[in-house]
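Following the same procedure, backbone shapes were mapped to integers, as reproduced here:
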Amino acid sequence: MKQEVFRQMSQLEGVINETIAEAESAGRLQNGTTGDEGYSLLPCPKRRSELMILAQEARRNYALGTPAPRQLSALVKLNLLTALWRNTQILGFNVHSICEDEFISPYNLQGPDLPCYSRQELSWPPYLRPTEAQKKITHHPFLDVFPFPSLREAGIRAEELGFFDEDDFCLDIFHLDDKKDSVERPRMIVWGESWDPRGWEVNVAFLRKWGWMVRGCPELLEGTNYWREKRGEKKLNFNLNP
């Protein structure tokens, strides 16, 4: 099992290095920032500080040609946080609303200055524009920032009926309970643009448990298989058609 873990680390590491290099060449890491604003979503100052240090260390190691596989898991989580942070910026959401329980989605509020105003929607990437359920069903804004309309629609409707636990979903994708076991955990990885489902990847465990939420989003499978092939892995064959 340990050999398999290190094999996957070495394969993923190359993609992470390419992602860092692309971000640097695109100028996203200028002005003294790390490009990993996602740590601002964390409510704990200590954890924010740890992630900031991790990002700086990872880039320093990359610049020296000595990337560290031990940083892989944390960087994957940080990339996901950063993608969600960027989508909150695109939508004009309060950053703290994503990680604090007392907020409800701006789509459930009224007023011309709120993000749900129809003229603003036209300027957003198509995959982030709200679905019918987002507008009509009161919900927490966490799901609003994922670029998968079918996931948002299915999750919000299922939660209203008591069939979906958003906290369980959050624990899964961030592995916040830190279980030490050999079972593959559901995982979401972001390699590309935060608003483009083709820039995201999910693993088999995610599709087995949460695949019902992303039926109708074949772009996610397209993106997943693109990144798997990039690492020399077999394509996944999972029907995401509605």
Remarks:
- Strands lie at 188-190, 200-202.
- Residues 1-16, 26-34 have pLDDT under 50 and may be disordered.
